Task: structure prediction
Amino acid sequence: MLTTTIVLIILYLIYRWSIAWINYYNRLDKRFGLSVWRYSYDYHVAGKRDISILDDKEFVLLRRKRNRAVTFMYLIFFLSFVVFMSFMNQLLIQILN
Result:
């Protein structure tokens, strides 16, 4: 149970680190918005077509980096959920015994 707690703390710190990277990318270009949980291509500007690498190479490369950071954040979030369920299982076993 102690190791699961330590793993949860480490995963939380990694999660906060990934959120900091997403916020950093959001501040680099105002077209990203302020959302942490959404991929940058999920919300298009009404009436505009999506920006391709030929239109704005710097923005598209930055968008890809940000989307990788969001994917990493989701990975850590769901991994934390699995570890938390293991922690709850161990805790319930301790209580019931």
User: Anything to note?
Assistant: The CA atoms of residues 1 and 90 lie 6 Å apart. The chain has two helices and no strands.
